[in-house]
Backbone:
């Protein structure tokens, strides 16, 4: 399953001088949506009674420490693709690298989170599926494998679409699949002895000139913070008095 | 034994840090939201006990061969500290679970350990430590509960008072007199009593100032018959077993105290940044800054002493008793001082239960009383100090 270390959203996020996320500014955690994908993967392994869950990440070389928590939750092992040339990669580049890594791995399903809290594009899963020719089963609220196929309930504006697909397939997980478990203390201790293989671009047979920041098809020109909020008024106090105050406020402005 | 070098105390291993951080997440997300309710209803938090069991936290100090994590004293204390910052009652569950099983771990035969430790390590069963009686608090030598040998059994008669979690425990490690005419401190023995044995019952439950979610019970033994194989160690070894237990359990209470202090400090600091009086956050006023600074410095000092003591005791220091006493002494007094000042920083709001500091202040007091009063700790420290310089 795809895991991405991202800056901790409860910490200080900063953009560096090149308008890219300064990943050194705050400690990294695994992207929250990826935890939901991992939880789904762990449940699938438990139901099947067999199989293994492998983390796959493209990240800076410091990633293994961040991936330990995912290993502590119960993933069996990890693969980290890291290379200096990959700094500043855009989503197309990232999808190419991860697809190349998947080419060297055995899998029945690739699970991905819906989007990341730092980039927020939500396109990596689709990009990888397109590059590898995998069925793309998105926004899964239920995943039911069986007989070499998988049935996925995809969230739609009116409810669910039920998709039936052969395996292997790429599935994008949603929070509807269930709350991620806390890593148990035994899991944390076991995580220390689980393996994370580290691959470079050379290991994947990829030419650094074809991926990474240098080949990015987008360039950040400018960033700006949203304008400061105008003075706000907070209504506190017991519910009855507060409600009366709110009603007066809205009535004065002819909003009710 | 050599004392640990400075690096031993001040550097947590990566594993200790990971375990501590995992417990902190649970404390923040699952324990803290329940703390006020636990205090208000004074009900034992079975849901949190299940959480501690399923997350392996209850199994932390138990030997690996019986299903525990084999964690060292410092690691167990890190967990107690992290939980206690959110809820002192919940931190105490882990502390009692460690304390009460220590006699089994330290003096039990392989057969006894196999009988009792796996269920405890998995958190399937709870255990309580029954030493104190109505007439025997600081004066443990005044214990009156009797255990009389009868064939292959012992028959236990008497009562215990102020036993933490005594009413929810499946097992109790009980200290009883086996040699009434014998020398003080040589006449006690320690037994494991399964609480479903006939003759065992729970008497009164105390209504307490603090740690109100932790049931504090009177335990009644009316002709309770246990097999001789329930005796831990040898007859007469009870007092020494109790003292050796305290070497490892007092740091657990110190950890609870440090956690309570830190929790109160965090609330007070956040409040000071938010509360505006005279046109500024009160954090801008030096009197508030001075109080918070003292609270921080004292908590940090108590913590550093606790960690050093844990390392020393784990390393087998020859004066483990003194380390246990000194860290519990400092931590308990610190918790009382810091929580009292936290109420002060919050002013009137500190006195009402909309904010947690009044509960933390009520919770802190017990750390100066149980597991040996502060006065007993001072006697232990003084005796050690003066003996070394005779």
Residues:
């Amino acid at each position: 399953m795809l895991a991405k270390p991202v800056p901790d959203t409860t910490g200080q996020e900063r953009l560096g001088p090149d308008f890219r996320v300064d990943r050194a500014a705050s400690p990294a955690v695994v992207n929250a949506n990826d935890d939901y994908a991992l939880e789904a993967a762990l449940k699938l392994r438990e139901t099947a009674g067999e199989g293994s869950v492998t983390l796959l990440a493209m990240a800076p070389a410091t990633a293994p420490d961040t991936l330990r928590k995912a290993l502590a939750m119960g993933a069996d092992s990890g693969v980290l693709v890291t290379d200096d040339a990959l700094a500043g990669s855009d989503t197309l580049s990232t999808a190419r690298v991860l697809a190349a890594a998947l080419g060297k791995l055995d899998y029945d399903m690739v699970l991905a989170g819906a989007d990341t809290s730092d980039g927020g594009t939500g396109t990596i899963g689709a990009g990888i599926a397109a590059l590898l020719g995998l069925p793309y089963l998105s926004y899964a609220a239920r995943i039911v494998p069986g007989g070499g196929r998988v049935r996925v309930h995809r969230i739609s504006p009116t409810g669910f679409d039920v998709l039936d697909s052969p395996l292997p397939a790429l599935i994008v997980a949603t929070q509807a699949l269930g709350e991620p478990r806390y890593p148990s203390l035994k899991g944390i201790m076991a995580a220390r002895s689980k393996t994370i293989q580290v691959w470079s671009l050379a290991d994947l047979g990829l030419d650094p000139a074809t991926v990474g920041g240098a080949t990015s098809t987008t360039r950040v020109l400018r960033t700006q913070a949203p304008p400061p909020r105008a003075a706000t008024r907070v209504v506190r106090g017991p519910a009855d008095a507060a409600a009366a105050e709110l009603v007066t406020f809205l009535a004065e402005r002819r909003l009710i | 034994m050599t004392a640990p070098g400075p690096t031993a105390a001040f550097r947590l291993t990566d594993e200790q840090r990971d375990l501590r951080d995992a417990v902190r997440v649970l404390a923040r997300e699952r324990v803290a939201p329940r703390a006020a309710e636990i205090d208000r209803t004074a009900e034992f938090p079975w849901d949190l006990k299940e959480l501690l069991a399923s997350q392996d936290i209850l199994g932390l100090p138990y030997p690996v061969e019986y299903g525990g994590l084999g964690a060292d004293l410092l690691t167990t204390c890190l967990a107690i500290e992290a939980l206690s910052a959110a809820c002192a009652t919940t931190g105490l569950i882990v502390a009692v679970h460690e304390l009460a099983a220590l006699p089994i771990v330290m003096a039990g035969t392989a057969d006894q350990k196999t009988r009792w430790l796996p269920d405890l390590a998995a958190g399937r069963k709870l255990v309580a430590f029954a030493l104190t009686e109505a007439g025997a608090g600081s004066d443990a030598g005044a214990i009156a509960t009797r255990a009389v040998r009868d064939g292959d059994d012992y028959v236990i008669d008497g009562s215990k008072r102020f036993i933490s979690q005594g009413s929810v425990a499946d097992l109790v490690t009980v200290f009883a007199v086996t040699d009434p005419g014998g020398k003080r401190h040589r006449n006690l023995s320690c037994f494991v009593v399964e609480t479903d044995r006939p003759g065992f019952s729970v008497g009164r439950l105390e209504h307490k100032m603090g740690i109100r979610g932790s049931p504090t019970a009177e335990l009644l033994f009316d002709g309770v018959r246990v097999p001789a194989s329930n005796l831990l160690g040898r007859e007469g070894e009870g007092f020494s077993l109790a003292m050796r237990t305290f070497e490892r359990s007092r740091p657990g209470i110190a950890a609870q105290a440090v956690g309570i202090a830190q929790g109160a400090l965090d609330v007070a600091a956040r409040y000071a940044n938010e509360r505006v009086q005279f046109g500024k956050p009160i954090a801008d006023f030096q009197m508030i800054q001075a109080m918070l600074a003292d609270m921080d410095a004292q908590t940090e000092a108590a913590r550093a002493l606790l960690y050093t003591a844990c390392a020393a005791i784990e390393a087998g220091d020859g004066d483990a008793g003194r380390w246990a006493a000194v860290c519990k002494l400092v931590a308990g007094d610190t918790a009382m001082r810091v929580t009292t000042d936290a109420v002060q920083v919050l002013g009137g709001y500190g006195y009402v239960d909309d904010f947690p500091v009044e509960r933390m202040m009520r919770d802190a007091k017990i750390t100066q009383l149980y597991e040996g009063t502060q006065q007993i700790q001072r006697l232990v420290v003084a005796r050690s100090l003066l003996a070394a310089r005779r």
